[in-house]
Amino acid sequence: LAKTTQPISMDSYEGQEVNITCSHNNIATNDYITWYQQFPSQGPRFIIQGYKTKVTNEVASLFIPADRKSSTLSLPRVSLSDTAVYYCLVGDKQTGGFKTIFGAGTRLFVKA
Amino acid sequence: DAGITQSPRYKITETGRQVTLMCHQTWSHSYMFWYRQDLGHGLRLIYYSAAADITDKGEVPDGYVVSRSKTENFPLTLESATRSQTSVYFCASSARANEQFFGPGTRLTVL
Questions:
Q1: Touching check for A105 and chain B: CB below 8 Å?
Q2: Which of A38, A69, A96, B7 has its CA 20 to 30 A from that of B92?
Q3: Does A95 score more than 70 pLDDT?
Q4: pLDDT (tens digit, 9 = 90+) per residue, A73-86?
């Protein structure tokens, strides 16, 4: 199973762009990279998923370099409501994804 | 309403008692999961299921039992609750294993 490493916590201010990097050195060929967001007292919520290069949706962007050994979740112009824990997961999208490990995640704190 | 629900939302029980946490999803997702989250920590996978009647162990299965006779239901049973099983339990479902939809959680306290 591919293990991920993320910073434990990050601070930011409202309106700034936040980039959270995740390392996954032993990512396998069939693995996808998925990010989740979790607010206090709620279950995690899917944010974005990608395999290579760049993926963008209405919430975030995901940058994945050619070697795929890391990925960066980019949150544009964060607000106070983006304060949450962000998890990076790596796993086979079709068959092995259910064995992925959430880990401790990155606690993002957005200040006014 | 469509979605994933868990019951009860809160449960207090005593050491040694059997407890069953319920999970129900209306999307007909193939995959279902049970996680526990201890205060200040990430989620740990207890059991998962790829389809009805197919279940397998995750990271921390000891002390738990699951079944999945119907696609939409995935109950989790603590056979003999212990204090170390005090936690928040999240159920999730997915059509694709890496894009999971989580329920609201069940906060379980074992006295």
A1: yes
A2: A69
A3: no
A4: 999 999 999 999 99
Which parts of chain B register pLDDT below 50? none
Q: Write down the pLDDT at residue A31.
A: 85
Inter-chain contacts counted by CB atoms under 8 A, chains A and B: 67
Residue A15 lies in a domain: yes
- Find the helix or strand (DSSP H, E) in which A22 lies: strand A18-23
Cα torsion for B92, B94, B99, B101, to the nearest 10°? -40
For residue A94, the domain's CATH number is: 2.60.40.10
Q: Which member of B44, B90, B97 has the closest CB to residue A43?
A: B90
**Per-residue tokens: A81:** 């409501």
Structure tokens at A72: 């960066």
Domain for residue A28, yes or no?
A: yes
pLDDT value, residue B2: 66
Instruction: Identify which has the larger pLDDT, A2 or B27.
Output: B27
B102 phi and psi angles, rounded to 5 deg: -100, 150
> Are residues A104 and B94, on separate chains, in Cβ contact within 8 Å?
no
The 3-state DSSP composition of chain B as helix, strand, coil percent (nearest 5) reads 5, 50, 45
Task: Provide the sign of the torsion angle of the four alpha carbons A63, A67, A68, A70, taken in this order.
Answer: negative
